[in-house]
Specification:
Layout lengths: L12 E5 L6 E7 L1 H10 L8 E10 L1 H16 L5 E3 L3 H10 L6 E3 L7
Parallel strand pairs: 2-3, 3-4, 4-5
Antiparallel strand pairs: 1-2
């Protein structure tokens, strides 16, 4: 029996590649189901160096792990993951876990038009 990927997609959050492919956009609640859906739909070779997290309302350990994987991929390529304006709750979580040292936070104004 095959499962339709779209039919199993969570409706409470998302991680999607922007239309131009230059960044990932995280919105809503980022949990293991959202991360699983992302991993099924976006190949690691397509992971960009910028993540827009302005729309995140909650992030589980699975979401934090995804950020670490994204940062490691960039580091292996000689770059650095840029995280666009983490909301206060996420910024506090990143500071408490020390993950704020794994990537660079950037203002939304640095997003190319």
């Amino acid at each position: 029996m095959t499962t339709d990927v779209d039919a199993t997609a969570p409706d409470h959050g998302s991680v999607e590649l922007s239309p131009d492919g230059t960044q990932l956009v995280f919105t809503g609640e980022i949990d293991k189901d959202v991360v699983r859906q992302f991993r099924v739909t976006v190949r690691p070779a397509d992971w960009p160096s910028r993540v827009d997290v302005r729309g995140v309302t909650f992030m589980s350990s699975a979401g934090l792990e995804l950020l670490v994987h994204l940062a490691r991929k960039q580091k292996r390529a000689g770059g650095e993951l840029e995280v666009v304006e983490p909301p206060t709750s996420l910024r506090l979580l990143l500071n408490q876990t020390g993950l704020n040292r794994v990537f660079r936070s950037v203002p939304a104004s640095s997003i190319p038009a």
